[in-house]
Amino acid sequence: MPNDLVVVKANSLIEASYRLSIDEVRILALTIGTMDPKSNQKIFDFTVADFVREFPEISQDNAYKQIQGAIKRIYERSVKTEDKDRVTEFRWVSSRTYFKKEGRFRIAMTDEVMPYLTQLKGQFTQYQLKHIAYFNSVHSIRIYELITQYRKVGEREITVEKLKEWLQVEESYSRWNNFKARVLDPAISEINEKSDLFIEVEQIKRGRSIHALKFLISPKKQATQAVENTENLTKSGRPKLPQRPQVKKGTDAEAKWARECIKVLEDWRKTLKERGEKLSTSDLELLCSYYKITGDWHTVEKITEVIEKRQNKENKNE
């Protein structure tokens, strides 16, 4: 299996409505990443070793059961696309095979889904699989794909209603506060921490309600690059964070990267304080996540208190 797998999807599939677990999305991403976009091949094999290599935080001991369960569920899943003339629903997979004692799996994609994955002439989005490899939330992956569509534009506006529909959370997170706390904020924090992009979110109100979200999209720079000019800054003016290295969770290398991110954010926090301004809540959540990696739980507790006070104040104002 080649390195640096690239996932390519039609934009209409990225904006489709479907519900999948994190392992189901990982399997589909791995499968799509191995496809030749110019071929019509529908049958794909992969091994437990392939899965663990591409998603390093997966335990080798549990991987087989995770994959087996996820493939079984994918077989029952469907995806719904919609345009101005029609709504179409189809399944992802037409067959699944387990090769006993080999640690190998095979899935066949349906005829209906293939036009959204291969022979694409335009209106498609692509990204490297490694940029979502460390995500632990399916919402993080979905939102990452949606903003990657507009990466070159630098921003994307989506109504809250449409985003909930695409993520299939209209009923489970009908209230804005719950959706923000349980879906949106964790996804943005994970994207900012673990991917090649940095995202800021502006809330757009209609009356007293949050009607839409504007995602401001900035590519990250490598940790070794100095902050020398505006190309190294986000739209808010903050220096961009170093990209997460391809290392396992809990290693010294991960802690070193986290400390580099902490320095960037704490320096920016100091700069803002001198201006009479405060670090944004999304940046505070990022800072908190980095301190967790380093094991500084005292600072984590202090930052969490600040975040909770802000959220309580926001809730009272809605």
From TrEMBL:
Cited InterPro entries: Initiator_Rep_WH1 (IPR000525), WH-like_DNA-bd_sf (IPR036388), WH_DNA-bd_sf (IPR036390)
Gene Ontology biological process terms, A to Z: DNA replication initiation
Annotated Pfam families: Rep3_C, Rep3_N
Domain Initiator Rep protein WH1 stretches: 7-147
Signal peptide: none
Superkingdom of origin: Bacteria
A molecular-function term among this protein's GO annotations: DNA-directed DNA polymerase activity
Residues covered by region (Disordered): 230-251
Family: Belongs to the initiator RepB protein family.
Protein name, UniProt field: Replication initiation protein
Organism encoding this protein: Haemophilus paraphrohaemolyticus
